[in-house]
Design brief:
Blueprint (H helix, E strand, L loop, with lengths): L7 E10 L2 E10 L1 E9 L1 H10 L7 E4 L4 E3 L4 E9 L4 E8 L1 H12 L3 H4 L5 E3 L4 H33 L5 H4 L71 E2 L5 E2 L6 E9 L4 H11 L4 E4 L1 H6 L1 H9 L3 E4 L12 H19 L5 E2 L8 H9 L3 E3 L3 E2 L2 H4 L2 H11 L5 E5 L2 H16 L3 E5 L1
Helix pairs in contact: 6-13, 12-13
Length: about 425
């Protein structure tokens, strides 16, 4: 399998299904994968007016887009090329497309990238779809013809009058399409477990820190309005206060359910299940997803659940400098704070990867790093029963359970809660 150090997007076709528009793309990033990318109809129509597909050329979609401030218009381009020549084809695009494009560009983890709400995996390539479509049409008309001849023969044999419309319904054969669920990938994480991580009470909390843009060419996030803090939402669910700078577990008698990589399209359903059983939980949010689903952050927080940061782009913190780690922490926390109107102190590093710089930043800003001791690996197995069986086989008093905001985990949640309650374990939020 080929390995690609950078993301490349080959544009295969622009499709419309019902009232929605999709780009059929081939993404080259660690592996080659075909996706359908749902975009706004306006951008799709603008692209179709500029791009004429030709089997003799390859069309590469740029990962860059720019704003013409005079026209207040975003623009991107496609490179049309073959062995002899290349040409850039520019097209206007919406701000929504611009933000989606930059999210794809900045995402460092394929597992997270293919879970973006506007992307879905497609098995078939556009060339196969075209050839299959022609083949299906040919088979369809041959079938119609054969049935017609047989019908005429039978009717003639019985000496009955036929009506032409009864022989030909005029319906074209349907185009077959196969779409599979995303198969996720996760990079092994390197974890450092310090012997003693005590919080420094002499350090002061962060105040009025700006939001530096760590990644170049990244769009500004529209949450910069300064607002007075509100009173924190009081949780009606059991809560455990964390005292250490780094925590892998909690006191005996309790267990913590935690969700990573949100918010997502499943966030509200997860919260509703938790509310139904009257149990606590903690959510760790990725900044990119906070921008897309701010209402789901508010929904979890306003219903009394703890929310924390899971970094801006799911970067490996070990690979970031001290300054870039701090910029990431501050920016993500400020995004969440501008929704909840409260300081965010909980942090979970992507992959559980941390180094001494990360620990020092936790102490400097009085943050609390929340790791785990029970990993369901729901990102890997994507099977509801496997997730349930893991919890039943491995969970014990004082555990912090790691889940992700996925459909299998959502489906497993009621049985997980019922099992933990049957063991007389208090299911808590973290603070």
């Amino acid at each position: 399998m080929s390995i690609y150090n950078e993301k490349l997007i080959e544009l295969l076709s622009i499709e419309q299904k019902f009232d929605k528009s999709f780009l059929h793309i081939k993404l080259l990033f660690n592996q080659e994968i075909e996706l359908h990318w749902e975009i706004d109809n306006e951008t799709a129509n603008l692209m179709k007016s500029k791009i004429i597909f030709d089997d003799n050329y390859k069309f590469s979609l740029s990962l860059c887009s720019n704003l013409d401030e005079d026209k207040n218009q975003f623009t991107s381009f496609v490179t049309k090329s073959n062995n002899n020549e290349s040409e850039k084809i520019y097209f206007p695009c919406s701000e929504e497309f611009h933000l989606q494009l930059h999210s794809i560009k900045n995402m460092k983890d394929l597992r997270i990238l293919i879970d973006l709400p506007y992307l879905s995996i497609s098995r078939s390539s556009s060339k196969k779809e075209k050839s299959n479509s022609k083949r299906y049409k040919l088979y369809g008309w041959l079938t119609v013809a054969a049935i017609s001849i047989l019908s005429i023969s039978l009717i003639a044999y019985k000496s009955q009058t036929c009506k032409s419309e009864s022989l030909f319904c005029g319906k074209k054969p349907a185009k077959a399409e196969s779409v599979s669920k995303a198969q996720t990938i996760k990079t092994p994480a390197k974890q450092i477990k310090p012997n003693q991580d005590k919080q420094d009470p002499n350090k002061t909390a962060i105040k009025n820190v700006s939001q530096p843009n760590v990644h170049t060419n990244e769009p500004d996030v529209r949450y910069a309005i300064k607002q007075e803090p509100n009173k924190p939402v009081q949780s009606i669910y059991p809560t455990v206060k964390l005292n250490n700078v780094v925590s892998y577990s909690i006191p005996q008698g309790s267990v913590a359910i935690t969700f990573d990589d949100g918010p997502s399209k499943y966030s509200k359903e997860i919260v509703n299940v938790l509310k139904k059983y009257k149990v606590g939980a903690t959510f760790f949010y990725i900044g990119d997803n906070v921008v897309r689903y701010p209402e789901n952050v508010q929904y979890a927080y306003s219903n009394g659940y703890s929310v924390g940061s899971h970094s801006m782009h799911h970067d490996d913190f070990i690979k970031l400098s001290y300054k870039n780690q701090e910029d990431d922490l501050v920016r993500t926390n400020n995004l969440i704070k501008n929704i909840t109107k409260q300081e965010t102190t909980l942090f979970r590093p992507p992959y559980g990867a941390k180094n001494q710089a990360t620990i020092e930043l936790m102490q400097k800003h009085q943050f609390k790093m929340v790791l785990w001791d029970k990993d369901t690996e729901d990102w890997k197995n994507r099977n509801t029963n496997t997730i349930i069986n893991y919890v039943k086989s491995h969970t014990e008093s004082g555990s912090i359970i790691l889940l992700h905001e996925t459909k299998p985990s959502l489906d497993a949640l009621p049985q997980i809660i019922e099992y933990l309650q049957s063991k007389n374990l208090k299911i808590v939020s973290l603070n």
